[in-house]
Please model this.
Amino acid sequence: MRCAAIVRADFPHLKPSRPSIKFSQRSSRVVARSSVRDADVAAAMESFAAKYRVPVEEIQQEVDVIESAGKGVYLEDSWGGSFAQKATTDLRQFEPGSTVTLARLSFNTWQPNEMKVKLTGGLQIKGDWDGVPNMYRVDTTFVTPDGIEGVSATVGEFSRNEKIDNRIDIAFTRLELRPPAGITEEGLAKWKETFQEANPTMDEGGSVVVEIPPAKGHLDILYMDNDIHITRGNLGTVAMVERIKS
Model:
């Protein structure tokens, strides 16, 4: 399963660049492990994060260490929240700073689809959101050549797989285009001037919602504690995300 990008512009305390991070060797949510194993896992995580986007064969040793320690344990109380991506083995994935067309960003949905936008970040949200208890969404933030900021989101729901204990099934069912949270009236007017004519179903708040046939995939939990989740997707991509603390 592919996700689009990494640190949401709606949150001013988040940086779109790749931050330098250090992983604590123990979390209150981690399944009990020896101190030696914890040190190995922390080192493997730091190595993965330092490379950020890397072919899986170049990070396989670190993945093996992490997977062996994680034992595929799913911690329900640690699953939900907002997360920023720290590393991935998907070389096709967009990065903050990339320039793409709206067509490529939205499966050829948003118009004008030839418009080029610069990606500024993203956010992965899992859990209770807008009254939906099993929400799974990936928000990708962008800015147009004229400086108009926006969010393109892929939205769905997740469920625990009935047969494989550490597997999370995900079905994306809609796309959303909207201005960033807290936009001013002047900003909203510019947003609508840029996008409303080409996207006539836009509502008064500047949002466009398009239902899509369910796009299904899954994530297998390799390692999970309260702050770090490392998963392998149905396409083989290994990804590491870190909780964003309010």
Notes: The CA atoms of residues 84 and 241 lie 5 Å apart. DSSP finds five helices and nine strands in the chain. Confidence is low (pLDDT under 50) at residues 1-37.
